[in-house]
Amino acid sequence: MAATLLGTVLSKKTNEAATIIHEQKKWGTITVRWGNGSTEHLFNDDELIIIERPLALSKAHYWRSPNDHILAFLKLAEVSHTDVVADIGCGDGNVLFRCIEFGAARGVGVDLSPVAINAARHAAEKAGLGAKIEFLVGDAAECIEEIAAKADVLFLYTLPAGIKAFEPALRRVLETHPPKGRPPRRLVTYRYHLSDAVKQSKDCLFGLLRVYMAGVGN
Is pLDDT above 90 for 95? Predict the structure, then answer.
C-alpha cells in the first residue's frame, strides 16, 4: 500500500504523476512520491498540476511496501509466469508493478480511493503495463471473494481492523478449490495476519510475511 494520499499532482515537465504525502501550506511546499518510489520536496507552483485534492480520500490509510519486502513476498508465494496476482487495497499499484516485473502473468488491484486508482492507472499506462494490470475502485470488504476468484495469489497489507473484517471472506477463499489445472490459491499477509485459528504454511522476514495455502487445514 502507498503512503497517505493528500492528492495527486502531474509534472508539466515530465508528464509524470505523483502522490502528495505531505504539505506545508505556510511555506507553499509539498512533498511528493513518484512512481519509482523516490520522494521530492517541491514548491507548489506552476511546474505542477493538481489533478485531484479530495476532502475525504477514503476510510483507509496507505503505506508503500518496501521493494525488498515485495520481492520476499513473491519468492515466499512462489509466484510464477502463469500466476495472476491480486492486491487487496492496492493504493498506487506499486506492489503489482513489481509483480509484473518479477514475471507474474497479470495483476488485479482494488482500492476504495478513486484518487489512488487514478494514479495507479496513469502510472501503469506510462510504464506500458496497462494491458497487464486491472485497477478497480471498490470496497474490498464487499468484493474480496470476487477479486480472489480472478487470482492465484492474493496480497493483503492492512490494519488489524481490516484483517478482522476480511477474515470470514478470506477463510472461504482458502476453503475454495482452484479451477482444474490451476495451482492452490495463496494468500500472503504483510505485518498484520489472520487469527491463529487459520493455519499458515510458512513465513519469512521474522514473521512480517505469512503465506496461507488453500486447502491446508482451513
Answer: yes
